[in-house]
Here is the input.
Amino acid sequence: MTTKLTAPFKAQLLAQRASLLDQLASLRGGTVSRAEASADHYGRTEDSTAQVRTERDLEFALDARETAELSLVDAALSRIEAGTYGQCVDCGVEIPAARLHAAPEAPRCIACQEKVE
Here is the structure.
């Protein structure tokens, strides 16, 4: 895929990356680590243990999901730089533009993604 064709995808991926970093920072309460953010829950004695655990588990799940999505975005940006963006990482076939517009971080064609799932 040429630089002209990848430019809109790169812009979309960079915007997606910035949004994910903002979400992660928000979940963590700014620049604190995931462990520090979850430790705040244990300091509140007015909350039940179940509520504290539920909130902590939800934060961990959201953080893990957004971290995994950030990893996919970074990998897609790396493929753009390497000149392999738009090719399935498993079979090498060109990923349809419609799929890339819907999920610009997609590393695989639909057939290979279905095999992975």
Notes: The longest helix spans residues 49-82. The radius of gyration is 18 Å. Residues 78 and 85 are 8 Å apart (CA to CA).
